[in-house]
């Protein structure tokens, strides 16, 4: 029992040692920024970013030295495994062939955004899909769509995925929302051009068929809605005419 208590105590001190060493270095950075008359907003951004990369274990992490000496192929396998769970959050990715999915994994890019940084802009061409890995996003603007579009009406204020619909159509599509980082965040970027280069021709054709089918469904729904309105207008006009005749 005494040995277990001793091991637990040592582990606790090791964890606190990492935090204490970081706080000491952060205090030195803070002092340096103040002495060099750096503006307060910039100081806050610097400290927030340093805390962010510390929490993400990119600095002062003992495992980093050992992971860096792995063979490149093994590093690639580790990266694929880490990215796979986030990429599968996009429903479309679950429909891809295994080879295509692996190629998409290799094409992914990671980005760090600070609080207030913009992910995309509503109404502008969507060039990539974004998946949140760490942090939090916030929607500050959205395009007003028809009330029947449940995707827009039911969208989360703090989304985990942004602009995933651009991967369903090789043609130009627009972003439906403007999302910004509500805090320091890490995101995965799925480039649209690279995505369509990775997937097979068969899959491309199926995506085009799906897009055309969705368009036809929406168009037919709109036509039916307009057709139901026409008789109603004509009947209202007939009632009005009858009222005028009877009054005369």
Could you please describe the fold and organization of this structure?
- The N and C termini lie far apart (105 Å).
- The chain has helices spanning 2-35, 40-55, 62-68, 72-87, 98-107, 150-153, 192-198, 201-247; strands at 109-113, 128-134, 137-142, 161-162, 177-181, 185-191.
- The longest helix is centred in the C-terminal third of the chain and has 47 residues, at 201-247.
- The chain is of the alpha+beta class.
- The model is unreliable at 146-154 and 211-248 (pLDDT under 50).
- α1 (2-35) runs antiparallel to α2.
- The protein contains eight helices and six strands; from the N terminus they run αααααβββαβββαα.
- The chain is globular and about 65 Å long.
- Strands 1-6-2-4 form a four-stranded antiparallel sheet. A two-stranded antiparallel sheet has the order 3-5.
List the helices and strands and how they pair.
Blueprint: H1 2-35, H2 40-55, H3 62-68, H4 72-87, H5 98-107, E1 109-113, E2 128-134, E3 137-142, H6 150-153, E4 161-162, E5 177-181, E6 185-191, H7 192-198, H8 201-247
């Amino acid at each position: 029992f005494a040995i277990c208590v001793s091991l637990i105590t040592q582990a606790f001190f090791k964890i606190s040692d990492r935090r204490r060493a970081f706080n000491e270095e952060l205090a030195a950075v803070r002092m340096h920024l103040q002495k060099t008359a750096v503006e307060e907003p910039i100081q806050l951004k610097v400290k927030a970013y340093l805390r962010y990369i510390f929490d993400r274990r990119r600095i002062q992490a003992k495992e980093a030295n050992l992971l860096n000496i792995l063979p490149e192929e093994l590093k690639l396998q580790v990266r694929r495994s880490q990215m796979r769970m986030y990429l599968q959050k996009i429903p479309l990715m679950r429909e891809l062939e295994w080879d295509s999915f692996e190629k998409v994994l290799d094409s992914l890019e990671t980005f760090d955004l600070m609080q207030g940084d913009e992910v995309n802009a509503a109404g502008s061409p969507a060039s990539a899909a974004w998946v949140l890995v760490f942090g939090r996003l916030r929607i500050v603007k959205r395009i007003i769509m028809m009330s029947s579009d449940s995707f827009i009406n039911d969208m989360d204020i703090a989304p985990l995925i942004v602009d995933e619909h651009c991967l369903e159509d090789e043609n130009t599509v627009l972003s439906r929302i403007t999302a910004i980082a509500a805090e320091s965040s890490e995101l995965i970027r799925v480039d649209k051009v690279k995505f369509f280069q990775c997937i097979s021709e068969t899959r491309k054709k199926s995506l085009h068929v799906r897009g055309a089918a969705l368009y036809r469904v929406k168009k037919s729904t709109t036509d039916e809605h307009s057709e139901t309105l026409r008789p109603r207008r004509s009947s209202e006009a007939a009632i009005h005419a009858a009222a005028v005749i009877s009054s005369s």
